[in-house]
Amino acid sequence: MAAYPHLFASLSLGSLQLPNRVFVAPMATNLADTQHCVTDQLVEYWVARARGGFGLLITEHAAVHRTGLTSPRMLGVFDDAHIPGLQRLAQAVHQVGGLIAVQLQHGGRQASEECIGGVCFSPSAIPSGRDRRTPRELDDDRIWEIVTAFGDAAARCQEAGMDGVEIHMAHGYLGCSFLSPLLNQRDDIWGGDTERRTRFAREVMQAIRTACGPDFTVWCRVSADEFLEGGMTLDEMKRVVPLLERHGYQAIHVSAAIGETAYYASAPYYVEQGHLLPLSEGVKQVTDLPVIGVGNLHDPEVLERALADGLCDAVALGRQALADADWPRKARSGQVRSIIPCTYCGLGCGERSFSGGSVRCTNNPWTGLESAWPDWPDGPPAAVPKRVLVVGGGPAGMQCAVTAACRGHHVQLWERDDRLGGAYYTASLPPGKRIYQSLIAWYERELERLGVQMRLGTEATPEGIAEAAPEVLVLAPGARSRTLAEAGISGEATWAAADVLRLRPDLSEPVAVIGGDVSGAETAHFLAELGYDVVLLEKEAEIARGVTPAARHFLLAALEELGVVVHTLTTVTAVEPGLVRAGLQEFACGSVVSALGRVPGVVLPQQPRDCEVHVIGDAARPWHAQAAIYAGAELGRAI
Q1: Which residue, 80, 78, 85, 67, is CA-closest to 31?
Q2: Buried b (16+ CB within 10 A) or exposed e, 83-93
Q3: 571 and 431 part of one domain
Q4: Is residue 272 located within the same domain as residue 393?
């Protein structure tokens, strides 16, 4: 019996015959150029996923009209100049046996006013929750102009050889805004009751059929719940979907949320796998069309069961497809344990996208660099294999060891702790973050597979290093907790946050946590979950700085629900028996936990001179896991 028979069964979608039911969900990459054209980077990014065996690739949203742009490097289909690049992309994917479709979109109320050079548009002048902009209400002439633009864009995709198009009617963009009872408050042919709110979708489909004929495959993506009072609900979407089917859409891709509630669409580690599948299940109850499910999906067993139980007809992997382009090939061949896991941190995908950077993945340094590193992970082969000693088993050290070993070097990895992971293991201990341990487990399996000699519980000393006689020494011992004295605070803390997370000591209440960035906020959450009364003291105006926006939403909600008392703009000056001073303020406390950041740890009192030496990761600059893993990968490629 084949592994995962439902996942790897064929599926008809319009005129397309798909080889399996595992798709790549549309995700912004920012790999287009500033003219919104396809680049070599974008081509190689998609070719990698086609080679990996996905049944259908759905590109990131592509603007059908200049007034719909959401970022300076968003993919475009609003000009004939975009056709050659799209054609090159389609041909490259087809050459390796893949199928690819373009997601067509207009940004509407969430368009970038900097990119479009003016005020954005929407069916109604409802302020955008992201920045409280108020869009202009569309008039009839502009609506028809945009409808025509969708048809023209689909024709360009067809001319380029694309296999179909998905119409983006989710996540608060223009198509979604027309469907939403919250965002569309018109009372004309474009809004009012359910049927009139689908008028835009109907006219877009008609424009595409006029431009492309009856055989071009067209479907849509919807937000089946907007998680806002007065917005779209599953019950309302059940009334909408039969109308979309009647209008000619050939599948329904079921997502959720709008800009104000985007943390449910690209949910972080706090949210369980498959959290949106009940929405696809509900949609399936009212249509015979193929239904595509999404929602933090990564485990083949969970996905197989979702299809077997009829929750959806296909599954779309988003961030997991960034973490491992070969997910389908590995799952189908029984190599599930070799799949690089997504940990839903949001650092390399959502966070970089919102800040204008091109797509990356914390857990897979190859993502977005497919054209720059075409020989990943086994190249370039080491011309002369060297003896490499990596000191430190955190993310930087583990990735460097894996990369160097893949290239043919003889690698040892020493870690002073009795387990791998370093600060990344500590980061996995607060509530909701256990999934981080899946990446450590993956590294352990890779290090073993590659024959890396691992020595745990081993402190690196000059004498030990001299005895090992490495030709290349990589120092990645991580960072240590910043002390109160280093922060200009007199007195002593009872515990450092990292030790609290690892050792779970008995503390006296109330527990004062000094420092409210990532470590402090998550440690406060950890302690509050254990039942402690917690006071969190932070000198800045906000806590949980450095936490990605989606994760921060859930973290702040948890702190509030658990009753953590937060004091911002509070600069601690002294710790004394039974209290913490912040200028003239005094806070009673039993135990004091310091979470004041990290400083580079001691590398070596004396570095050897008879070998090549490198310092990477937090030992060079304390930052986050993505930076550490990339440093390890880059050095591993350079040795």
Answers
A1: 85
A2: bebbbbbbebb
A3: no
A4: no
Tell me the H-state helices in 374-511: 395-406, 423-427, 436-449, 462-468, 497-503
Give the span between the Cα atoms of 524 and 26, in whole angstroms.
36
Residues linked to residue 412 through DSSP beta bridges, in sequence order = 389, 453
Beta bridge partners of 588: 579
Q: How far apart are CA 19 and CA 389, in angstroms?
A: 45
Q: Are residues 444 and 348 in the same domain?
A: no
Q: How far apart are CA 494 and CA 506, in angstroms?
A: 11
The secondary structure of residue 347, as a DSSP letter, is: I
How many Cα atoms are found within 13 Å in the side-chain-facing hemisphere of 240? 35
CATH number at residue 45: 3.20.20.70
Q: 240-299 pLDDT, tens per residue?
A: 999 999 999 999 999 999 999 999 999 999 999 999 999 999 999 999 999 999 999 999
Please indicate, yes or no, if residue 136 is contained in any of the structural domains.
yes
* 154 inside domain: yes
Q: How far apart are the C-alpha atoms of 491 and 637, rounded to whole Å?
A: 46
Q: What CATH number does the domain containing 581 carry? A: 3.50.50.60
Residue 116 lies in a domain: yes
Q: Which residues pair with 619 in a beta bridge?
A: none
Answer yes or no: do 606 and 585 share one domain.
no
**433 and 311 in a common domain:** no
Residue 103, SS3?
strand
- Report the domain count for the chain: 3
- Residues 6+ positions from 329 with CB-CB distance below 8 Å: 51, 52, 53, 335
User: What would the pLDDT profile of 542-588 be if each residue is shown by its tens digit?
Assistant: 999 989 999 999 999 999 999 999 999 999 999 999 999 999 999 99
Q: Judge residue 515's burial from the number of C-beta atoms within 10 Å of its C-beta, 0-12 exposed, 13-18 middle, 19 or more buried.
A: buried
| Residue 25 near residue 318 (C-beta atoms within 8 A) | yes
Count of beta carbons in the 10 Å neighbourhood of residue 240: 23
pTM: 0.96
CA–CA distance, 629 with 635 (Å, rounded to integer): 10
For residue 5, being part of any structural domain is answered with no
The torsion angles phi and psi of 12, rounded to 5 degrees, stand at: -90, 130
For 11-52, what is each residue's pLDDT tens digit? Answer: 999 999 999 999 999 999 999 999 999 999 999 999 999 999
Catalytic one of 173, 270, 443, 630: 173
Range of the domain at 213: 11-354
Contact 409, 379 (CB under 8 A): no
Check whether residue 350 and residue 463 sit in a common domain: no
Tell me, what DSSP letter sits at residue 619?
G
**One domain for residues 548 and 610:** no
173 is catalytic: yes
Hey, what are 182's tokens? 């919250």
Counting residues of the chain whose pLDDT is more than 90, the rounded percentage is 95
Helix (H, G, I), strand (E, B), or coil: what is residue 591? strand
Q: Does 556 share its domain with 615?
A: no
DSSP letters spanning 114-151 = HHHTS--EESS-PPPTTT---PEEPPHHHHHHHHHHHH
Q: Would you say 322 and 364 are in contact if contact means Cβ atoms under 8 Å apart?
A: yes
Compute the distance between CA of residue 173 and CA of residue 187 in angstroms, rounded to an integer: 20
Q: Could you tell me if 433 and 510 are in contact, meaning their C-beta atoms sit under 8 angstroms apart?
A: no
First to last CA, the chain: 44
Dihedral over Cα of 474, 479, 485, 486: its sign = positive
Euclidean distance between CA atoms 178 and 165, whole angstroms = 19
